[in-house]
Amino acid sequence: MATAARSGAAGAHAAAAAIGQLSALATPRTGPHAVPPFPPVLVQGIEGINFADASLFDVDQYTEAKAGDRAAASKYFQKEASFISKMQDVLAEGRQLVYTTYAFRSCGRAIPQVQAHNQEHKDYIYRRTSEILRLEIGRMTQLMAFRDKFVAVFTEALAGIIPDIRERDFFPSEAYLLTIAQMLDMVVSIDNMKNMKGSMNNDLSMYKRAMSNFPKEQTESEIMLLPKLAFFVAQQDQFAIDVKKAIAAMSNTYEDILHDMINLCVDYIDSDHYLTPATRYCYLRAMAFAVLILDGEGDERDFTKRKKLKVDKLGKIFKATPFVPLFGDLVISLPAIYAKAPHLANAKWDTAESDDAGKAALLKSFKLSTTILSHRAEFRDYFARANLAIASLRTWKAGKSSVMPFELAKKIYETTLAGLRMMSGFTSKVLDQTAYKFLHPASRASNSEIPEDATSYELAVRYNYDSEDKRVLVEYISMIKNLAALLNANLPILQEAVDSHIYREVQLFMKGPITQYYASATKKKRSIGPLLKYIRDSAIDGAIDDDAALKANVPQLHFLRALMDFVFNEKSKGMKGGLIKEKNFKDAQVAELQRFFDDSFFFRQMMQLSETIKECSDLSNLWFKEFYLELSKQVQFPISTSLPWILTEFILESSQADTIQFALHPLDLYNDAGFCTLNQLKSRVIFDEIEAEVNLCFDQLMFKLGQRIFVHYKKSASLCVLPADLKVELDSIHRHETLFYVSFEYILRQNSFELLGRCIDVTKIMSQMANQYLRRSIEVAITRFESSDLFNIMELESLLESAHLTHEALSRHLDLERFEDLVAECDDSLSLGSTNGRILSHVIQEIIGDIVPNFCFNSITQRFVRSPVFYTEPVQRSHFPKTRPMYLFGSKSLGVAFTAHHIISKEFFGEPQFGCLLRILTPAQIGVVVSEVARHTELIIEHTMGTFIEAVYQRCPKNVRLPASNLNVTAQFEVYSEMYRHLSTYGDLKSQIVQAFREIGNCMIVTKMLDDHTCVKNSLSKMALQEFVSLEHGQKAYLDLVKEFEGKLNFGEHAMTLAAWSDRVAGLARPTNFPVDFLKSFVERTNSVLIDACREWNVGSDRLLSNTKAFVHIWSSLQFVLCLPSTVSSDRVIRELFGDGLNWAGCLFLSILGQSEVYQGMSINGNMLALAQLDLGFAWPPTAAQASPTKNAVDQASALRPDVQRYLDNAAFFAAINDHAFAALKVLRSARRSARASARISHAAQ
């Protein structure tokens, strides 16, 4: 027997080693596990033979019984194993019927009913009804037939060993008693499942009604079957009734078996001697039903008087756990089972919910929040220890040793067992709370927000969990799934270590204590000796280290444990002792045997580690809802009532940073439900519902999670862009956002998330959504910019910078498109039908259509401000779009802060805005802007300027003399005012002529501002780079030296060669400079068009101003008129309406035409200011520091007429602006001359 076991285990080991080599081809995960991975395929020995080889374990040759009793004694264990095998077969069939019954749904509801006796096609409807329902009736018949089979096998298993127990002092083994417990549990389970399905009665009634229309087509057996089936389906607790009837006719010895079974279950539950939650619930349900069987009518059947029964402990267990989940959403109340016992009152068991205090204590015991702190600490401590143990195992695996050290295998076994027990305990806690919630639904009295039409399932689930319940439940689910993920991820090596430990533990115990006990018994000539020899011989193998990878088998372990229990159990003959008879084993030996017996209890489940992990982490009950669908008579509940989605939605809406990392864990409940549906329920309909719900939930989860993650990173990026003075107020609001970083990073690393058999790359989905949101953010920023004036350039830069930082942060975890490509796509810069991008087009449109014609330039502040009076048509812009905060700055509070920051810059257009233009637009785009501005100037000069100059010339006096020496400034002012009266009253003076000069001047100023900012930017860029990277001779020598290393050293494994690296370093030293000399280009283009279009404006060759149409005369007259107070309203001056741009335009023309110096000598305003200085004795405008011998300068100026004072103020300001403009143009003109001279010298040298 041992040799056969060795050969089978050796073959399995060889196959496992061969398959283990495939691990080298596996692709390792690059991220953490959000759900347990699918378990690997493990090659194991033959399992599940259900004691088919029990006959091989022959005890005859080892027993010393008399010849007449030998057969019965030696065959007892084989007979018991045979009964266990039969019961296991029945249990397997019964479990499948339980699953089938749970998944049963009424087909009759979907079948149309016959409404009238004479209805058309009545026979066809009845015939099709019978055909459809025949399959369902077959399932009911199968269930009824199983009842008879179950009762027969159960009674046979009890009756078969009763004679041995009563007559030969045998007692049932632990495996037999636990199998009896499973049989009793099956009775409770299948009865409650059948009682729950009221739709069976409906379908059966509809089938009988349909078949009654075809009496001749029914066989005699069918006619006799239907009444029996109707009685079976209609009667409650049919299995329990028949089982009680069957065993009532048996010998009372069965009661001893049930006593032992109950006591064993009590001890195991009291000491947590089980591994899976299903085992614990099986014990509880079996004990409750066993109490009902034991108790009967009459005092002699009073179960409370049975001394063998641990009644007090049993009552405490029932009080602590009155509710037990059966399957899915079906929950059993244990008091409802044993309450039918006639003598229950004698037990004096306290009811858990007898008063308010008891209800509160029971609620506290079932709530997960009462144990979360201790369980969280246990989980973290175990996770650290398990990782250390697994790391040690991997280190050994990577070594060359072929034999696993015993201590290492033992450590791995103990660690794995501790993890399974912890996981089982957590799962039990979750299922216990779920059972309590199902039996204690929410009420409208305690929660007024519950709608009147809420279904029973909503009361039990949707409205029965508060925020604390959801948070704790999510954490428990995450701990369970993380434990399962840890064990599944290392399953092959863990299984190898566990099998090695089990095999060695058995062999060491056989070669150690059992061999010693056998030697001692043989020496003392005790009858137990041959049996100990049989135990040793049936389990022992060769040298442990020579064949350490062999594996024990299940039948071998069963008989080993059964025989060990038989020899040292207190009921054994050899353990009773007496006055002159010594026990077979001493107390220390019994303790040693008991330790091995208790430890080996878990061996079978540990040998099937993958299945055990699945059972310990199964939370499918949290999704199933068949009982409530049957109760509510509905086809399906909405997704909002599904607990997995409720938990997922709670996580997404939670403001706690440590909760968001569990966002994917509730979805693993669908994996559990799908696995259970396919492998247990075998229901395609339910699986399709799970799949449909998963598709909807996962889409919603990815949508909401993607938004949540994007908003988080958008807020963080916006806070980086926001000025420091505004961050202080928002710090308390957004400080907690930084805590979410780790949780979001954990989610973004999920590149292989398993869901219903599909491996989903969450990272890829998040990348697609992030690209979409970034693209939308950029699109919104550009659209808002297009819908506003150029003042909004500051907001555009902030939005783009926020999006850029968001992209930069997300790109650390996600594979995103280049930000430059996203901007170019949204800006239409890549479109074949667009020459300019949207941003550039809008900048040009706003500068030419709004800034140039409608703004006034202030030379002192260097800013453009909007004119109070418009002389052009208003600019038509699209409607300003309404946008969600996530596409702007992430939140409303940040949006308000940025609005407050930008509101200041929306009153002017100056240095900050020009800086934004240079940062947003590329050097080539800035050149396009300057070119378009120059083109606009050219069009004004070509098409309108000649006409306007002619109009001014016609309204000016043809002969203007210098001021007379005998007139004071006031009188001369009157003379000039009269001479230019026609020009000052010209209707189109401001709206046409002055407006044209304003536009040309603003065009020049815009160009100058861009030129100035470009020079500053280039200088700063060069200085910043030269501080770190320089292309001077020393640096070039260094780069050359680096390149030489390429040929001397081997750098073939590097991703980039040193030569390529050196080229990139050199590229960094060449800063991207904006083109300069924008103003020079502008003046040259203006010069060419002005010379060609206005030749008659030039002065005569004798420079005596013989040409009365010379521009110097026109501009002198025009400036005088513009300084007159009568030209504008009494409360304004001309520069408030048109700014300083018109002065720059006139100076530009004078400079190009070479009349600037002439103008300074014959300007009317200049002569008037000189005359005022001559009259008053000081230069205008007066100051307190200026004085005359008689009075203060301010007092002297006050003596002039107000209109003269206003004129002189305007003239003095114009003169200052002219001087500034002439100085700038003179520098430019000198630079042009130097460039031309250098070009001539170079040409001559060639």
From TrEMBL:
It comes from Polyrhizophydium stewartii. Residues 78-318 form the CYRIA/CYRIB Rac1 binding domain. This is CYRIA/CYRIB Rac1 binding domain-containing protein. It holds the Pfam family CYRIA-B_Rac1-bd. It comes from the Eukaryota. The lineage of its organism: Eukaryota, Fungi, Fungi incertae sedis, Chytridiomycota, Chytridiomycota incertae sedis. InterPro entries: CYRIA/CYRIB_Rac1-bd (IPR009828), Cytoplasmic_FMR1-int (IPR008081).
